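INTERNAL TRANSFER SHEET
From: sequence group
To: structure group
Subject: Single-stranded-DNA-specific exonuclease RecJ

Please process the attached sequence and return the structure record in the designated field. Keep the field labels unchanged so the import script can parse them.
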Amino acid sequence: MKKQWQIIDPDPQTVERLTRQLSCHPLMARLLAIRGIQSKPQATRFLAPALGHLASPLEMTDMDQAVQRIQRALAGNEKILVFGDYDADGITATAVLVSFLRHCGARVGYYIPHRITDGYSMSSRFVTDRAKPAGVGLIITVDCGTSSAEAVTLARQLGIDTIVTDHHPAGDLPEAAVAVVNPTRPDCASGLSHLAGVGVAFYLVIALRAYLRKIGFWHHRREPNLKKLCDLVALGTVADVVPLIGENRVLTNAGLDQINNGTRPGIAALMALAGSPDAPVDAEAIAFRLAPRINAAGRLAHARIACQLLLAEKRKRADRLARALCRLNSRRQSMENELFESIIESFEHDPKQLTGSVLVVDGPGWHEGILGIVASRLARQFNRPAVVIGTANGTAKGSARSVEGIDVSACLGRCADLLSRFGGHPQAAGLSLEAADIPRLRSRLNSVIETLGIDPDLAPPLRIDAELPLHQVTPDLMAHLEQLEPFGQGNPSPVFMATGIRTQACKTVGHRHRQMTFTHAKGKNGLIPAIQFNVTAPAGGVPHFEKIAYRPQWNYWNGRKQLQLLIEDTDPGT
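Return from structure group:
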């Protein structure tokens, strides 16, 4: 889809001030200003994120009550059960808390629900059928629980306390909980609402370790180094696509150091199968290589496979589990592509489906585990929110994904009377309803989104940080850009524009990607390779471009690294 090129224009005085204060290149100052950096102290913290910069976990409401109740459970040798979610955020949050509590000598187990048979979050059936018979005294939820008031109340009636840790938007809190540690709750002014579920769980661990230190718990037991858990935090944080700013930036940066040290057998085993052996793991590798494989367990089988991998202590067991996840991910990719292509084919037969402000598609037997990924692809391709719904026996479950400027969760809220359940984030949500109500949902959502005044036929924006001729793409430039990492949501890798492009070679690779070689406009510094995904090479010659939008990156291959351009968009001119 054609994009609107928008060159970002930061405040020139801020750029000049940062250039002077930091004694840096104006391009670096420009990139910092675009990212909201206005002073030398801010720049220093941004460029050198450290665990010492983390805000106090006690700023979160109910944190005191949570750690004191866990300490009582430790002292009383109570059975503790960690209840997680089946996505990568919930899986890593489970692994963080279980790892720490095991180190404390706790009687701790964990439970992750099955996506299809159990559904999302803690249910009353879980309390009566599993927690109570197992003699659990304390349940700690991670990445879920805020919406489980009924189950929490039942647990309390049966003599089981519950601590909720979550990051999903909080409305009515489960009042029967001992504590609800959720930075999005209305009475929490911590400024930590951008944390993922695993980040909230890690903050609980920070607070608990400090409280146990205060009461002398570590006098006869080695106090753990929490940095060793940051690999799990980075994995869950990046996978959940929360903004990589503030604490998330700090935790992800520390976690990437841990991952690249190769100390956790499960992550090392997965990277050996999923990644380039020569390339260091960065946030992009988590997002496109690790996270999909972790998520594949909860999508197609059971998420406990992924949790077992992350908790594995022996490499042999980790290798076996990693191979299982890779097989599940390959199957997921095949199922996803098949469903996506069938939906595209249906659009070709019935183009009217593309005339609204939102895409709502449904079909019998569509697997719940792949609906969200297909919805994401549809939203990107057609630049409008997409809802993909699978039906069975008169009921329907679906996943919604959105585009910039449209809060899909809020839009679903205006359709609440048609839904039996819904919830999520501005950009992603889940829902269930009666299959007979799908046409009404489609009509209502279209009306709701039309009132926002956003034209889905407008080309999506492509924000460009600066114009940068190709001859300035050098190893020195890459060293400066690497200081801005980790890149991700809220801190995207810089996009540059170049004009006067000379294309020397062009061919299709992998059936649907365009591999090219450019010469610099000045013709002095040799050649630079480039890759553009999901665009095939034109027949009959080498294309001409008036300008290109690109991200410079390192390409690792056969023990060597080479500069290349990742092409975001091209303008062939006239």
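Handover comment: The CA atoms of residues 215 and 319 lie 40 Å apart. Residues 4-9+462-571 form a domain with the OB fold (Dihydrolipoamide Acetyltransferase, E2P) fold (CATH 2.40.50.460).
Transfer complete.
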